Amino acid sequence: MDATNRRRTIIVGNLQRRLLLNYAMHLIMIVGLFLAALYVPPMLNMQNPEFASSARAVVAKELLAMHVRMWPALLFVVVAISIHAVIVTHRVAGPMVQIRHALDRLRAGDLEHRIHIRSNDYMKVETDHINAMLDVFAQHLEDARRDSRVVSVPPSNRDDSIVGV
């Protein structure tokens, strides 16, 4: 996935999907517990035969008034938490996609590629460590290439003036 498509994509991979599913499950549980705590006690009071019908009518009116005020607020909270969840998981999944891309390029032999993440992304320390590791690998490969050129020089072209040889 190129950089332009990554910017337009809201969900960037299986990791982000799993994280968002986890967020959604927690949100559903919290909303369910909230609704149960809010609605069950008044409903039980309305069904209690010991309550007078006038008391039940008052509870019913309060329940309807709460119902009208609560749903728009709850919808706003669910939407706000959902947007926040997408943003946070994107800050984790985006660097993971970059790391996977860098590892694919490393497997193909490209030691020059480095991971670049956005300033607000998480995993900055991890990507810095991977970039440092790639720097070390590239340096070791360069050293090995230089040493192999020295070893591959025919004996007639070598400088045998090294002391002790």
Distance N terminus to C terminus? Answer: 56 Å
Q: Which band does the percent of strand residues land in?
A: under 5%
- What is the percent of helical residues? over 70%
Q: Total number of β-strand segments?
A: 0
What is the typical, i.e. mean, pLDDT? 85
Tally of DSSP helical segments: 4
Radius of gyration: 32 Å
State the order of secondary-structure elements, H for helix, E for strand. HHHH
Category by helix and strand content? mainly alpha
If you had to describe this structure to a student in words, what would you say it looks like?
The chain has helices spanning 3-8, 14-47, 53-107, 124-151. The protein is mainly alpha-helical and 165 residues long. The chain contains four helices and no strands. The protein has a domain at 3-110. The mean pLDDT is 85. 75% of the residues lie in helices and 0% in strands. The longest helix is centred in the middle third of the chain and has 55 residues, at 53-107.
Concise summary:
This protein has helices at residues 3-8, 14-47, 53-107, 124-151.
Primary descriptors:
single chain; mainly alpha; rod-shaped; 165 residues
List the helices and strands and how they pair.
Blueprint lengths: L2 H6 L5 H34 L5 H55 L16 H28 L14
Helix pairs in contact: 2-3
